[in-house]
């Protein structure tokens, strides 16, 4: 499953400053059972708008991590909280297989 949220950087703060904190928190969070990686995407044309995607083996494992946040994780998150707006977009499960690009595959021509 994927947990996705939008981050809006407030004036006087930068996406790079947020990304530094996000990486530090993610490195700790990724130690939790079921954690499968994170991505941070920046909107084209709006450097203050980001999308964060955390991939988990299951919702149960993500919920368990959320319930047991460590002080270190909370400290990092709280350090940037005044400078960003966070809007959870939700929890998503795989729906369809990913279709890969086969631009050089002769079988498709």
From TrEMBL:
UniProt keyword annotation of NAD present: no
One Pfam family named in its UniProt record: ABM
Domain ABM: 4-59
GO molecular function, one term: monooxygenase activity
Matching InterPro entries: ABM_dom, Dimeric_a/b-barrel
Keywords annotated in UniProt: Monooxygenase, Oxidoreductase
Keyword check for Oxidoreductase: yes
Superkingdom in the source lineage: Bacteria
Protein name: Antibiotic biosynthesis monooxygenase
Native source organism of the sequence: Microbulbifer variabilis
